[in-house]
Amino acid sequence: MPAEGLEDMRISNDRGRTRPYAKRTEAAPLGSLISRRTVLIGMGASAASLAACKTPVAREGSTLAFREISLMKTPGEVLPEGYRSRVIIRWGDALFEDVPDFDPATLTPDIAARQFGVNNDFLAFLPLGDDPSRGLLYANHEYPNPHLMWTGLSEHSAAREMTDNQVAVTMASVGGSVVELRKADGAWQPVRDSQYNRRITATTPMRISGPAAGHPRLQTQADPTGTRVLGTLSNCNGGVTPWGTILTCEEGAGEIFGGDWQSAPDHALLKRYYYDDTDNDRWGWTRVAPRFSLENEPNEPNRYEWVVEIDPADPTSTPVKRTALGRFAHEGASTILAPDGRVVVYLGDDWEFEYCYRFVSTHPVRPGGAAANRDLLDEGVLFVAQFEANGQLKWIPLVFGQGPLIPENGFHSQGDVLINTRGAADLVGATPMDSPEGFAPNPVTGTVIIALTSNDDRSDPDPANPRANNRYGHLLELRPPQTVNGRDHAADTFAWEVLALCGDPATPDHATRFHPATSSNGWFTDPDNIGFDPTGRLWICTDGVQPSGHDGLYAMDLEGYGRALPKLFYAPPAGAECCSPTFIDNGATLLLGIQHPGEGAASLDLTPTRWPDFDPTRPPRPSIVAIRQVAGRSVGD
């Protein structure tokens, strides 16, 4: 039963499937659907006058000085005039001296596990000591594209067509990479054979910690303790802790597993985690790893979709799945400190009609780095967001025994709450969102931006998701209360507003909300992961079927005249998305992940690009690039 003041509702999607959730009964006033600050930009105009404005106003006032590019699909990259891009590392580049040169035809799992992985997504850069010319690069490797890795495979039947060796190579090519970088002659380069270099794969031994560790639902034949697991999967976005460790996020696992989910003992939980709406055994892993068969190990799925903490400075350390942060399709884990020193982690569940979460640690961060804070993320409270029509956000705790999270509703411990985080959030009145992806605090202002990619199954808009059939996505801005010591990210309530409604401003049916000076190249759809430069400007990577047919990297101010005025900065090679804009060198260098170049082609023979090698005998290779201004100024200025 839902909590008091809520009513039972049902959500349905385009496959005719439904699920219950608890909804507040209050109505949403129309005025709450539009951002107050965003429509009152620079001119003192009313919302009505801006909506009626037909002539774009002058673009001076945006702090972004680069000449906006035109979005185009090409085999290579497109950058603004005066900028250069350089590939730092590619899929298959050796991390160690004893690794042979990249050759997909002769790859083995052992070789792949000592090379830079495939389809890099989240990036992080951590300086090494006080030396500005050394640092550690961490990259997630989300999933394989077998049909773009080898010839002779097709997109939809690769699982059947691959050899067992190729299947094992895909398992060794995902996860994460730690690579030392050194700067020489102004350029960052990987250090082969560095003591820090490391690969994390789908078979790396890991520890399970926190309230769900040891739970019967996490116990398997291979691990009757429920505290040890092999590998991490579907690593999309992530975060960096204040003590210098990586948080890598597992964004779903249903496509990995094979077997009949409906016959599994925990079939109701599997359905709530979209095993009824996901490709089955997509890459054939059950052939070489029987633990991914639901018949063999029905509890194995519950050991994924967590946040994994990795210490990049200690290559001998064991990665840890932190169950206190909940289990769902984790898109990111951005951190910030509350005024009292506790760490706050922002977490989005990247599915239609899923939720936005926040974790607040019990204890403050201690001096002494990773060693002193090794298990800080095991104790704390996970909250879920409820967006109200009055512009207030309430954080609802997901704690066993509180409200509806009781045995009567199937929850017998905090472990139950965390293993079925979605089911718990359904009952407490959380707001179902339009695919929350990027979810990160601005390091300059302390406000928090949420990128919501899209939801074309939405029929009933609400204040935080104000468009039905939301095909284009939107951005929200959250405002924690201000204190004398900065914004309190651990507070129970925030203010919030809509920052932008994505789509083409020239198409009335899109019902967009951007700055009226947005150009025909500047608008975008499907906002995905986001980043901030050192001045607090927002950088947005898109990921979806853009009306233009291509993804890009956009930037906008969040303060002043240029608020919500996006400009297109970068277009990746055909078929690729760009990921995780990361600024280093005090903003003079932008690191960017280029994921799945050529994706969309049915086979390698049909790929529209062979970037970055442009060698007809080699496949396209996901890579990390470093972008700089030729003149040496900060990126964007």
In short:
The protein has 637 residues and is mainly beta.
- Span between termini: 54 Å
Q: Main β-sheet: number of strands, strand sense, barrel status?
A: 9 strands, antiparallel
Q: Tell me the β content.
A: 25-35%
What is the number of strand segments? Answer: 34
Which structural class matches the secondary elements? mainly beta
Strand order of the largest sheet: 15-16-18-19-20-27-24-23-22
Overall pLDDT, averaged? 92
Uncertain stretches of 5 or more adjacent residues: 27-33, 38-59
- What does the overall shape look like? globular
Taking Cα atoms only, what radius of gyration do you get, to the nearest Å?
23 Å
User: Helical stretch count?
Assistant: 10
How many distinct domains? Answer: 1
> What percent of residues adopt helix (DSSP H or I)?
under 10%
Q: What are the salient characteristics of this protein?
A:
637 residues, 9% helix, globular, dTDP-glucose 4,6-dehydratase, single chain, six-stranded mixed β-sheet, nine-stranded antiparallel β-sheet
Description:
Strands 15-16-18-19-20-27-24-23-22 form a nine-stranded antiparallel sheet. A six-stranded mixed sheet has the order 10-9-14-13-12-11, with no helix packed on it. Strands 4, 5, 6, 7 and 8 form a five-stranded antiparallel sheet that branches. It has 637 residues and is mainly β. Helix content is 9%, strand content 30%. About 5% of the residues have low confidence. It has one domain. It is built from ten helices and 34 strands. This is dTDP-glucose 4,6-dehydratase. It comes from Hyphomonas oceanitis SCH89.
